[in-house]
Amino acid sequence: MNFVKTLICAAAVAALSTAASARDLVMNANTSDPAQKLAIENLIAEFEAEYPEIDVIFNLYDHEAYKVAMRNFLVSDAPDLITWNAGNRMKVFVDLGLLDDVSDVWESEGLYDSMPAVVSASSVDGKQYGVPYAYYAWGIYYRKDLFEQAGITEAPATWEEFKSVGEQLKAADITPVTIGTKNLWPTAGWFDFLNMRVNGAEFHAEMMDGKVAYTDDRVKVVFAHWAELLEADFFIENHPAYSFQEALPFMNQGEAAMYLLAPFIVSMFPEEVRQNVEWFPFPNIDPDMPIYEDAPTDSFHIPANASNKEDARLFLRFAAQADVQTRLAGTMDMLPTNINATVKDDRFAQGGFAQLSQATGIMQFYDRDTDPGLARVGMQGFQEFMQNPERIDAILEQIEAERARIYGDL
């Protein structure tokens, strides 16, 4: 009989893995949020119906416990499948030799064509080490009614248009942008997009991998663009006092017009506000620069020490199918990575899906793509810069010292 065993207790994993038979497929997952848990359980049920000879043993951890347990179970008691993140978080384990090369799955399933935006995020040295199943697009959410109140008829597409929109909003006594930096990470979205729009994805990826100094002149150009907005008073005052949720009322109450954030913000708008909310991608700065987007991506991986890699590959092939991803991402309220999938009839989902499907490539967000210690110091620096832009040289030197400590001298 087919069954799914959902275990929160990590201590039970070893016993289950040891007892697994040849046609058991053991999956360790961090999808403990209710919608994610349901989506993966539904996926497993579909897979078992397709392959009744395979029983999936589903070991579920909460997010923080999973981070601690991964390094142990990947080495000493590897399951056959894991959920994790694409990008640098994946690369850490690839570099340690703990994840299997699954380029054969990409080749046999034509994933280079059906998942073009996530190829680079799934690759290390030209080989693929995971199959993404869901992601989400960052963008600038704005109140259309406030734009109209300020005489703005179109969303900006370029940096100059964005600055012009901000000035029009200010003239109408509306703060252009709300942000809560008490959490630190909202600042990283601004850095990521500015860096990708100014310097491109390859440069950004090298920075995230510790191969570029934060005192590099090309990095300073990024902050020069950011400073244009700070000097023009585009952001709400005292933003370090607010979490990202606490900064939302400024938009809900009509005091601020825009917010750079992920789609989870949509559910936080009151219905009467949500009706007036639209969004646009982060504006272009260099017209010759290909468009890259921040899109945190969840993916399946096969540990290098897995015992049932054959059935694990069957699972990856199954999870990559367009119709499967349509249902999976829909339940998770995220977006499918397969461009042939469909998304729910919602303007935000439809727009985000089109945005990511048309992107030249995607990045994984600052604190997912670089060393955690460096990310913490970097985001602290971004927050300080937003309060005291004149201290940029000292701030970048401080972040660079942390980069050098972690990654070494260049």
In words, what does this structure look like?
With 410 residues, the chain is of the alpha/beta class. The protein is 47% helix and 13% strand. It has 19 helices and 13 strands. The protein has helices at residues 13-19, 34-50, 63-76, 88-95, 103-109, 111-114, 144-149, 159-171, 185-199, 201-208, 217-231, 248-252, 271-274, 309-319, 322-332, 347-358, 366-369, 372-387, 392-407, and strands at 24-29, 55-60, 81-85, 123-124, 127-128, 131-135, 139-143, 175-177, 256-261, 277-280, 292-294, 297-301, 361-363. Helix 2 (34-50) runs antiparallel to helix 15 (322-332) and helix 9 (185-199) crosses helix 18. The longest helix has 17 residues, at 34-50.
How far do the termini sit from each other?
58 Å
The biggest sheet amounts to: 5 strands, mixed
Low-pLDDT parts are: 1-22
Q: Could you tell me the number of beta strands?
A: 13
Q: What's the pLDDT, averaged over the residues?
A: 91
| Alpha plus pi helix count | 19
Strand order, main sheet: write it out.
Answer: 2-1-3-12-6
The coarse overall form would be globular
